[in-house]
């Protein structure tokens, strides 16, 4: 199950739109149409940022006629990237009303409101008919979901035969506990990592077929190191207002440092997977 109240509390419940407006204005984006690259520091809420989204999309066959469901769409960065790059249609669902409202706001600002749509919903009970989508997509969402089998079952249900489920998630890499807080959880109470082997077993148990399975842990470790190096090089210069601290608050820096540490110490890993519904 998902403890909705605790998950929403972690990600924030208050309206984000005024904070987003202020951050956009501070960085000089208040009076022009925005692009994926402009918003990437804010809305690509996963390890390796926009690069990870680009790589996951390139592993799929996406075209203008493709219908995508983004499960756990957050602020909508990946969904807007897909819509802008491939001209496809994307439906995003998220547990947080604040994130849904913010995603709609950013869809308007990017001129993509005709191709992306966001709904507040639970990933374990998707509000769509069976066989509605060509692609199901999720990045850094399952870590908050204890009932992983139902998550995968719902993704399978809403996919058409031959559809693909694209996943980019943190996994448990050893029996050692994580260092907290991390971006998805302040404490172990709302963190439900499984190992890569268990993840694969659960997907196969829901009648998915493995198309590709890529361990991205080393790439993420290197990416975090580059981010830290770039941050050190900018020391003393004003920081950009547009970043995940707008959403997660000043403690987000500690969360990302802990995730990087967990990856380096072999406590966690990163998997990119593409699976298919026969």
- CATH 2nd-level architecture: 3-Layer(aba) Sandwich
Helical coverage, percent range: 40-55%
Q: Just give the CATH class.
A: Alpha Beta
Question: Could you say which overall geometry the principal axes of the C-alpha atoms support?
Answer: globular
Q: Give the strand order of the largest sheet, numbering strands 1, 2, ... along the chain.
A: 3-2-1-4-5-7-6
The percentage of residues in β strands lies in 15-25%
Rg (CA only): 18 Å
User: Low-confidence parts lasting 5 or more residues at pLDDT below 50?
Assistant: none
What's the N-to-C terminus distance? 27 Å
N-to-C order of helices and strands? HHHHEHEHEEHEHEHHHE
> Remind me, CATH topology?
Rossmann fold
Distinct helical segment count: 11
How many distinct beta strands? 7
Question: What structural class do you assign from the helix and strand content?
Answer: alpha/beta
Main beta sheet strand tally, sense and closure: 7 strands, mixed
According to CATH, the homologous superfamily is Vaccinia Virus protein VP39
Task: Walk me through the structure.
The protein is α/β, with parallel strands linked by helices. The protein has helices spanning 4-11, 17-26, 36-43, 49-58, 77-86, 97-109, 148-158, 196-205, 217-233, 245-248, 252-264, and strands at 67-71, 89-94, 116-120, 133-139, 159-172, 209-215, 268-276. It has a single domain (4-276), classed as Rossmann fold (3-Layer(aba) Sandwich). 41% of the residues lie in helices and 19% in strands. Helix 7 packs across helix 8 and helix 9 (217-233) packs across helix 11. It is globular. The two termini are 27 Å apart.
